[in-house]
Amino acid sequence: MIGYIKKTIAKIWAKNHVKKSYQHKQNAAEDQEKLLLELVNKANKTLFGRERNFESIQSIQDFQRQVPISDYEDLRPYIERIKKGQAHILYPDTPTYFAKTSGTTSGAKYIPLTSEGMDDQVKAAQSALFHYIAQKNNADFVNGKMIFLQGSPALEDLFGIKVGRLSGIVAHHIPQYLQKNRLPSWETNTIEDWETKLDAIIQETEHENMTLISGIPPWLIMYFEKLRDKHGKSIKEIFPRLQIIVTGGVNYEPYREKMNELLGKPVDVIQTFPASEGFFAFQDDCTQEGLQLLTHHGIFYEFVPLEEIGKENPRRYTLSEIELYKDYALIITTNSGLWAYSIGDVVQFISKNPYRILVTGRTKHFTSAFGEHVIGHEAETSMKNTLKAFPEVMVREYHLAPQVNPNEGLPYHEWLIEFDTAPENVLAFEEQLDAEMCAKNIYYKDLREGNILRRLKITILKSNSFIDFAKSTGKLGGQNKLPRLANDRSIANELEKFKLNH
């Protein structure tokens, strides 16, 4: 009876929520300008606001003239002041959290997150589930157990500001009505070693009624494989009531085939686009490609054509100005104090009503040693199309890097691939993949036809190479993601140590 009541309430909430959000979809472009001016007005007395003369900003055009695009290094001096306990620096509210991310050559990033910003992150995650419930008219999963593969919820303290990984911070904001259903335990979540943690998660979950599982695809695959190897069954046989996979962090498509194989039977997938800087989009219809851009969650968006990234004054498009099927670098201004901030992601709009996007790559993850500027989406689509021609082949993971100075012959693109099932004829697979790359990237095609580059080369890696590489760099588990594309050989040279010797 209690289960029936929970499901009924969830369905009512979901329908009401989706009805309200429909209005936001209709007024998305207009709401964006209002939001920007509200944020500017609120922050006009902050240090950043005074330096950029926020009081004189009356329009988007004023904002774009007075506030240049920034990255973390531009904001670092302000963030260092906040870390020392100073107030009214980037935003009138002192951040409640710093979401700590690894990555830059100059050390960890500390991304400010205000209580407003955190509330909007939580609302966005809830909205994704409400849209699913309303679309399916089904809320059965609320009566089962849910697992979130995430970082440790243990937080440090820095002048009263809590510091931790975003996924660990989010663990403190799971709605009360879901707390009893949530796994793993606090103790398991705080285990730092990923493999030890995964074993503990399996012990806690393997005999439970799991209905929702959330995490980034590579780590979901690790979890599912360990379960399958232990029980000798598909995931749907182990968890027959599993209804939803919620995923984000990386594009799901390259992992879909492997996930389907492990699951054994269909499970609905909700793709999301969250980051430490904000929750930007989610799949509002799990039967359609694309993620709905969230325009009413404290984030103002600008879009810079990919070819203009790096220019001194790139053209900055607003939502009402974007074109479909064009790659844009995503620039955000948030209610946590990020101003015209480049998060490094590349998106492409596939719909304007509502605004739906694909995440097509990273501004810093590309291969362009010869001017070809291959981005993630092009490499992933080329691989996907190649696998259609070789249905027996299964790819676990790959990394693409240029080989500029080979010992002999012309330069080439090297694909370092870990296969679950390798092609019998690697040469034929190379030729197909090369042809697909030529079809996806005209500059690559010109370089190949002009004999600047020779055909790409595949280097086959041993089983578990990417996991072993992640271990060796201390980046196994949680939300860590290995770039699939690089413009140098720093990762490729390390991966070559795992080469399969024929």
From TrEMBL:
This is GH3 auxin-responsive promoter. GO terms for molecular function: acid-amino acid ligase activity. It comes from the Bacteria. GO terms for cellular component: cytoplasm. PANTHER family: GH3 DOMAIN-CONTAINING PROTEIN (PTHR31901:SF9). Residues 378-489 form the GH3 C-terminal domain. The lineage of its organism: Bacteria, Pseudomonadati, Bacteroidota, Flavobacteriia, Flavobacteriales. Gene3D superfamilies: N-terminal domain of ligase-like (3.40.50.12780). Residues 294-352 form the GH3 middle domain.
